[in-house]
Amino acid sequence: MIRELLLILFLTCTTSPSIFSQEKSWMMGPFIREVNPHPIIQSDSVSSFSDPMTGKKVRWESMATFNPAAIVKDNKIHVLYRAEEKLGKKEIGGHTSRIGLATSEDGREYEREVEPIFYPANDDQKEFEWTGGTEDPRIVETEDGTYVLTYTQWNRKYPRLAVATSTDLRNWEKQGPVFEEWKDGKYHNTETKSGAIVTKLVNGKLVAAKINGIYWMYYGVPHIWLASSTDLINWEPFEDQEENLVPVLSPRPGYFDSWLVEAGPPPLVTENGIVVMYNAGNSQKIGMPSLGNKIYTGGQALFDIDEPWKILDRSEKPFLKPEMPFEKSGQYEDGTTFMEGLVFFKNKWYLFYGTADSMVGMVSWDGKIQ
Fold first, then answer.
1. Residues contacting residue 62 through CB under 8 Å, at least 6 positions apart
2. Among candidates 80, 46, 206, which has minimal Cα distance to 151?
């Protein structure tokens, strides 16, 4: 009898999907990997399009496909992923990035479009996007059906957080860098990226949420800062009385997020507060030795619903981390599970992440938010 029980336990442990425990009651999850987990999107050396920068046909996703945003439209999951063209340079940031689109009717299998749907073009944003490209999208929908994309513009000098809008996910109006005009461009020529706009679940759909009449966005790295807006296009950074930026989440010595923190997918308003999923970098010397150095994992933080700058609680350990071979091999050899996309689809939560700056992974959760 004991032998039979041990055999059942062994088979369960070796055939079940990977499960990440829910550490605290307010957290989302536990998220699980599918049985026989694999990347849902990988690089493609065949797809090409006519590049406005060079006037030539380019293999726009020949190097890597990673760091995905996600939204539900027409009863399908739409994944907007960063794709890099291989230019012969091995260093991270040395390629050209564009944004591709993949759709799924079941959350498991994804069909890609041949050409990118968002890219550096011969437009009024070329000074900010040539030749590094458009990177690391996050996306939300408004109550009137407009899609708001936050992304990084990379001109190989300054990475800048920018906004674009669309009604169909294919035709985009670039609104420009989010802080270009604010206080005469005080933060225009500083590194800004990773803009995660707060959302709420309405009739089974995630939409941009107003809190006391204002939209809020968590952004930045190596700290997470906060910005507010009345229209989702023009943003004001959250400053103190001395007019300095105020970090609302910072790295912690002794923890998995000891090196850096970076905003993940769009945060979610719940009964407990605003749940912010964030990407966390570990410093092996002062952080969690078992993780290794500069490993990217996922954490969650809870903020006050009425005061979005006020943190209420925070996870003590990562709820998502690199475990599979495809999460620990690629451009970023130390390993990443870099989260940027979250959707609620057919009564199930899907969380999308980049793996080692090379591929797209996905985990899911059947639970309900509180």
1. 43, 44, 45, 84, 85, 86
2. 80
pLDDT score, position 3: 43
pLDDT value of residue 15? 37
What pTM was computed for the model? 0.93
What are the per-10-residue average pLDDT scores of the chain (370 residues)? 40 42 89 92 95 95 96 97 82 83 96 97 97 97 97 96 98 97 94 97 94 97 98 96 96 98 98 98 95 95 98 97 90 88 97 94 90
Q: What's the token pair of residue 87?
A: 């230019």
| CB hemisphere CA count around 296 (13 angstroms) | 26
Distance of CA 265 to the CA centre of its chain: 4
Q: Can you give the chain as a three-state secondary structure string?
A: CHHHHHHHHHHHHHHCCCECCCCCCCCCCCCECCCCCCCCECCCCCCCEECCCCCCEECCCCCEEEEEEEEEECCEEEEEEEEEECCCCCCCCCCEEEEEEEEECCCCCCEECCCCCECCCCCCCHHHHCCCEEEEEEEEECCCCCEEEEEEEECCCCEEEEEEEECCCCCEEEEEECCCCHHHCCCCCCCCCCCEECEEEECCEEEECEECCEEEEEECCCCEEEEEECCCCCCEECECCCCCECCCECCCCCCCCCCEEEECCCCEECCCCEEEEEEEECCCCCCCHHHCCCCEEEEEEEECCCCCCCEEEECCCCCECCCCHHHCCCCCCCCEEEEEEEEECCCCEEEEEEECCCEEEEEEECCCCC
What pLDDT, on a 0 to 100 scale, did the predictor assign at position 368? Answer: 82
The residues that bridge with 219 in the sheet, in sequence order, are 225
- CA–CA separation, 216 vs 274, rounded Å? 11
Domains in the chain (CATH in brackets) are 56-365 (2.115.10.20)
CA–CA gap between residue 331 and residue 328 (Å, rounded): 9
